[in-house]
Amino acid sequence: MRIRRRRALEERIFKVLMAASAIAVLGGLLLIVGTVVVKSLPALRLSMLIQTPKGGFYLGREGGILNAIVGSLYLASGATLLAVIFGLPIVLYLNLYARPRSAMAVFTRFSLDVLWGVPSIVYGAFGFIVMAALGLRASLLAGIITVALLELPIMTRAMDEVIRLVPQAMTDASASLGATKLETALKVVIRQAMPGILTAVLIAFGRGIGDAASVLFTAGFTDSVPTSLLQPAATLPLAIFFQLGTPYPEVQERAYASAAILTLLILAISLISRTLIRRISKHSVR
Amino acid sequence: MNGSHIKIRDLNVSIGELHVLKNVTLAIPDQQITVIIGPSGCGKTTLLKSLNRLLDSVDGVRISGSILVDGEDVYAPGVDVTAVRKKMGLLSQKPQVLPMSIFDNVAYGPRIHGTRDKAALAKLVRCELEAAGLWEEVKDRLHEPAARLSVGQQQRLCLARGLAVEPEIILGDEPTSALDPQSSRIVEQRLMALKTDYTVILVTHILRQARRIADHIAFLYLGELVESGPAAEVFASPKDPRTRAYLTGEIS
User: What's the pLDDT at A56?
Assistant: First the structure.
């Protein structure tokens, strides 16, 4: 009898704890989004979205942050593309070609885990050195390369986890029809894991578009929309950083508007991708 | 009885420290159903998977001996593994459909082996689905995901998919163990019908199933091939006491 009461009490305590942490997290999220939106309201105008900075003060009192919006989208898209180009082959190698416990596979996974933990300012500093060695100036290209380095371990390990879930029986089925490993990888494994792969790509994209430290030295900053890979590019996180750092309240307000735009951008991308994932996962075998 | 184009000689397989198959020598008669029986863990599935070299991907596997298919050793150096596998269609314990439509599942094999012509593919898919006894049930939903089929239908789809690469041999690893009785019966009947054109090798732990469909029996016990021969003989008068004990249910 006493044991039964104790078990029921345990159950209740943990239920309360779990609900409390869920509420804390959800509340925190709402508080952040709420603060940003409320504080951005005075400055949030259509012109923010469709104009480059204009008129007075450093960073502009009027006009918008089109330069940073477009710069961020260019930068994060380019970096994500580059990271996919290098990341996907690594993951396919690890899961289809390398023996599961081979030194190569273990070492690669370990290295990626370490790289995942490296702070982004270190990537920025490293990118800066590489840039100088190559004779590049702060530019969209240098930023793309640096952010791709930052995204690569995140994306690769996330993809690795989902591709590991593809059942061995499925790759065996493809192999026993006479498919090569590459055919199995491209036509079966990627297709089965596609929802997870896309999620990994989006996590990396979100990380890339939101990071300020890695682009601080490498991408530079500019008031105009970049028209070539070799020009400097503005980014939203840096725009927020610079705007908040000014002594003028009018410009500081605009920082919150920039933050709101960045948040909404990420929200829009997650929503679009969710519908996309639902559509392409039609054929996945569960 | 015609000849035998699959000859296993002195096959030894170890996985890690475990000696799974010990000196197995066995000739598989053509165009008959050879059923491999034995208690679980005796190496039946390993033997089956060694035939089409699916064992290659197992960690820490060591294989010695030879398996001759049409006079060629599948373990000889320089053998094209994909060509070996193409000769053998595999039905696994749990049907494993590919993440694509019903049509594409069947067309997958022919496509990777070079068939591009749409009309030819459509004809082939229909033909194989008929052979697997599935056509009537799926003809109006060929482009739906294969995963939406019932398990029994999925196993017949796997059969059609295997047949589509024109194998000579059908390997079945307890292909009915995950199916309902109705689907099991259909799959069994299909295998019986297919033996006029194919050599069928089936692993099962269901003795009644072995009695129903086997022409030839191979009894494996603890990794050793204890006895093999025509089904009628083995069932009526087993030579080895261990076979007799297994058939009467004393060991299982």
Answer: 58
